[in-house]
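Fold sample X.
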Amino acid sequence: MKPTLLFLAALTFACSATAHAEAPKIDSIALQEIDGKDTTLRPFAGKVLLIVNVASECGQTPQYAGLEALWRKYRDKGLVVLGFPSNDFGGQEPGTNAEIKRFCTARYEVTFPMFGKIRVKGPAQHPLYGALTGPMAAFPGEVQWNFGKFLVGRKGEVVARFDSEDEPDSIALTQAVEKALGSNERP
């Protein structure tokens, strides 16, 4: 094979491999619980996850009540709602982790798992959101506002994405959750 053809063949293979690469696995990404304990998403293996970037001073903040209701309705079937506070949109989550936890517990009786405040966009974006929104993600593109939602299936794959306007009790979100829960295949 001529050097030029060899180079083109290698380039074609490299591009093909890149195009077929999978999005990074999210279960091993380092996280912090809202109380400061180091963790990952591994404790939720085999569950359906609803990952939500949350904020306490947003017009969408009342969605905490809907998220809690969704969690209570479906947790025994395998759904876990996960809240990730972020101050990326209009400075609407200025509090500390302790203040956020107090607010969510007192105002909305949140019992679903909450994590430490992170960046969901920009140069300091947390790796979790890099995996959820990056070019290799199932639904690429930056989160546009607070209360964006990613639905992750039992095998750890993102199966749906919802914007902040999609309420936790919306038909589309509820149907997607029920469909994901109906898949009893474990990883």
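Fold sample Y, listed below.
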Amino acid sequence: MSTPFLNISSALDQKLLSLGSDPIAWQNVSFVPTSAEVYLRPTNLAGATRQAGLGNNGIDEYTGIYQVDVFATAGNGRNSAEAKADAVANHFKRGTDLVYNDVTVRLGNVSRTSGTTEEDRFVISVSINYMAHVAPR
């Protein structure tokens, strides 16, 4: 069974896990942060899949954005969120290849927001562009 979306997400998630010990709010998993901790929330925003090779057996190109939201306590300045957002951006270096179950994910450009306040949290979003070439389904 072909699982390119799962393999791409898993490759990106494994890279995030290797960043360190900050708590991560994974999708569809119960998570309650403490009031003072900085935590991360990843979301894989998969884009359109397109045929990148000729013929019925041509490879498919998967693109998307892996967004990592950095949450820090609101009202305490930007420093902790800025430092963590920079660490995330540096960790997902452009040109890096991630491999999971024989699927190679190439990391592209990284960008980030200036930050917003949501309830009791200050949030900076880091966006990591990626692409993967996968055998057709």
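Sample Y note: Residues 4-17 form the longest helix (14 residues).
Also: Residues 11 and 99 are 6 Å apart (CA to CA).
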